Amino acid sequence: MVKICCIGAGYVGGPTMAVIALKCPEIEVAVVDISVPRINAWNSDQLPIFEPGLDEVVKQCRGKNLFFSTDVEKHVSEADIVFVSVNTPTKTCGLGAGKAADLTYWESAARMIADVSKSSKIVVEKSTVPVKTAEAIEKILTHNSKGISFQILSNPEFLAEGTAIINLLNPDRVLIGGRETLKGKEAIQMLEDVYAHWVPKDRIICTNLWSAELSKLAANAFLAQRISSVNAMSALCEATGADITQVSYAVGKDARIGPKFLNASVGFGGSCFQKDILNLVYICECNGLPVVANYWKQVIKLNDYQKTRFVNQVVSSMFNTVADKKITVLGFAFKKDTGDTRESPAIDVCKGLLGDKAQLSIYDPQVSEDQIKRDLSMSKFDWDHPAHLQPPSPIAIEKVRVVRDAYEATKDAHALCILTEWEEFRTLDYKRIYENMQKPAFVFDGRNIVNVKRLRKIGFIVYSIGKPLDAWHHGKPE
Ligand code: NAD
Ligand code: UDX
């Protein structure tokens, strides 16, 4: 029986291994983590992450061929294939701070693998890492191996949160990179055999190590670049009277461009895009390619601009002051169908509004009060470094109320900002909300989910990303 162990029971390790266990009943899969609460949650009815369809998959396999454990060393030493899916955040200090990937967690996992292994293993990079990381890992493993042989593979993960199970069950492709030696090819074949249980052969791409590592960074950069491109156009739409939804539709109809990932928004968030592009920028700089580095840096700059532009729009529309005005924030997660808030645009927007002394009333169907307050009191890039977690600052606590219902959140508010595209925000009773708000009542839709015409008819002053502005925003009376 082949044994798989995955180090890191997070958003990637948990769902990915659960699907492997589901599709390969004859393989034993152990997911291990140093975080005791995380493993306890994986072993309970309240999984540590909210992901549609995940509960069912875990329930089917847990205790049969899927195990969650903190006994990292035992499971690593017994495994034939070790996936490493630990966090690879942005460095916060030292060389490359604010850009380079912090491989501290990865390196400590690699050293531990070398330490506890008594038999040969395939070590799979599942985390997103800088190109050439496999070379460094190989060095750590072989120099500490006591004669045991390791094959390193790169098998980056392309799932998106909120649709992880669908993506894993039916991936566009599975990418496996390895050494072009006989042993390397055997290792690739062994991992290919695992995925071949449910992924059609023509969707399994095998490459060299560096192509696999770089393809992951490239794919995320291309996706984020589409969003920054459409967001750049959204600013021009507002200035000219064009409508970004119509522009996106017309542009996306070109078969060479395609319709997906062209939704204008308050900015992209999530744990991957910014981190991976900064990492790419750093690699370009280190390789003497400043022009290429600057090209990709613009994707991040535009995203920051879009968030700032949104905050400025709120403040300037409301007579240039939001001091002590109640502003409702609907949605705090970085996208719908997840409770994940890592790099959520809501964090920067809320911080911007708090900077202008607003009172915030926040509602998100999946994010806890604790998480929101922690996010609002953390410095940039600290979220992925557990050691830096600090208690919320008194300012954030004082000016922020987190409520469990959209109607309560909007009561007596001057404005509401929609920052996550949760389905329930499309169907709220906006007439009822309007009646309970201060007048003039503003809606700032950062996700283009409300019917602008209908809301204006109710009486709201509406700003929607990339949509023609109303008379109010043109400086004319209604
Ligand atoms: P995560 O923070 O949710 O999970 C990482 C886990 O690794 C944590 O639970 C942490 O406790 C554990 N860990 C860290 N060091 C460890 C060690 N030495 N031993 C055992 N456990 C250890 O992160 P994630 O979102 O699952 O991302 C993991 C990697 O996958 C990152 O490199 C990320 O860029 C990449 N990735 C993420 C996504 C996504 O959607 N979140 C998608 C594709 C790729
Ligand atoms: C992304 C990649 O899609 C995935 O392949 C990779 O493995 C991890 O990073 P994720 O961050 O989970 O996945 O979600 P994604 O759907 O890509 O959304 C990222 C951000 O972009 C969200 O904030 C989302 O709201 C925003 N977005 C997405 C837009 O603003 N407009 C769009 O058209 C699409």
From TrEMBL:
Active site residues according to the UniProt entry: C272
Superkingdom assignment: Eukaryota
Designated name of the protein: UDP-glucose 6-dehydrogenase
Molecular function terms from GO: NAD binding; UDP-glucose 6-dehydrogenase activity
Top-rank EC class of the record's enzyme: oxidoreductase
Alphabetical list of SMART domains matching this protein: UDPG_MGDP_dh_C
Domain UDP-glucose/GDP-mannose dehydrogenase C-terminal intervals: 328-452
Family per record: Belongs to the UDP-glucose/GDP-mannose dehydrogenase family.
Ranges that cross the membrane: none
Keywords: NAD, Oxidoreductase
GO CC terms: nucleus
Pathway: Nucleotide-sugar biosynthesis; UDP-alpha-D-glucuronate biosynthesis; UDP-alpha-D-glucuronate from UDP-alpha-D-glucose: step 1/1
